[in-house]
Structure formats: C-alpha cells, structure tokens
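User: Reviewer 2 asked us to show a designed sequence for the structure in our supplementary figure. I'm pasting the structure tokens here. Could you produce the per-position amino acids so we can include them in the response letter?
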C-alpha cells in the first residue's frame, strides 16, 4: 500500500489555487497557451491557476458553453461525466476551433475569448456550430508505447 495521501494533496491544491483554470488540462497538454496561466508545482505534480479574475470568469463561461455544445458532437449523454479524452477534445479542440473562426495566429485562451467577445458581442453568441468542427476533428496525442 502506498503512503501517498490523495486527500491531503487535494486539500493542499485547493489551498494553493485561488482561481482554478477551466482549461488546465489543455494548458498542461500544451495544445493551447494562456498569458494569465500560472504554473504551480505541488507534490511533484503540475497545476495551473489563473492570474486574472475577469479573464477567469470569461473562460469559465466559455468552458461551460463548450461542454453544453459538445455533448452532441462527442456522442455524450447530458448527465454523463466527462472522461479525460473527451475533456481534452472539448478543451483543445474548442480553443483551436475558436482560433480558426477568428483567424487568429496563436491559441491563447484569454486572448481568443476576449477577441471573440468583442467580435460577437458575448460568449453566448460565438458560432459554436463552427467551433465544434475543431472539437470533432481534434486528435489527442497518442500514448507512447
């Protein structure tokens, strides 16, 4: 039996991260970036916190909108938990899909969400049918064998 205490890690993580990033998995997998992301090392693990309150709130709204729009695209039931692979597809594919729609050069989450908000008048008005193409076509990195 391992001497590692997962509950203690979760408590330390919650204490260290005051603004969790909803795109943490995408940032840690390096498919996207964010100028407000701050990396923390806790118990030999990486975690991401957000350094900007209003950008964090906008990202949370965008993340929720991606989830709600990606259920059909990823063949998921509405109440189904998000497995890691589908979460990565929603996060990475969603941000890259938004980048393509906006014609951006870099996949910086905060910059893209702010630009999309300016262009479309709000996160709820983003062209999710076009963004979902990025979600559907995103292929996560294959495991090394």
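Assistant: Here is a per-position design you can include in the supplement:
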């Amino acid at each position: 039996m391992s001497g590692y205490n997962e509950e203690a890690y979760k408590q330390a993580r919650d204490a260290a991260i005051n603004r969790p990033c909803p795109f943490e998995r995408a940032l840690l997998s390096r498919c996207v970036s964010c100028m407000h992301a701050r990396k923390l090392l806790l118990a030999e693990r990486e975690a991401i916190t957000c350094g900007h309150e209003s950008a964090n709130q906008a990202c949370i709204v965008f993340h929720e909108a991606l989830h709600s729009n990606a259920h059909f695209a990823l063949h998921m039931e509405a109440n189904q938990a998000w497995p890691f692979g589908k979460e990565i597809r929603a996060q990475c594919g969603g941000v890259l899909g938004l980048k393509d729609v906006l014609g951006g050069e870099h996949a910086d989450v905060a910059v893209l969400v702010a630009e999309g908000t300016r262009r479309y008048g709000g996160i709820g008005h983003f062209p999710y049918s076009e963004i979902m193409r990025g979600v559907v076509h995103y292929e996560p990195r294959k495991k090394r064998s």
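For the response letter, you might also mention the following. The chain has six helices and two strands. Residues 53-137 form one domain.
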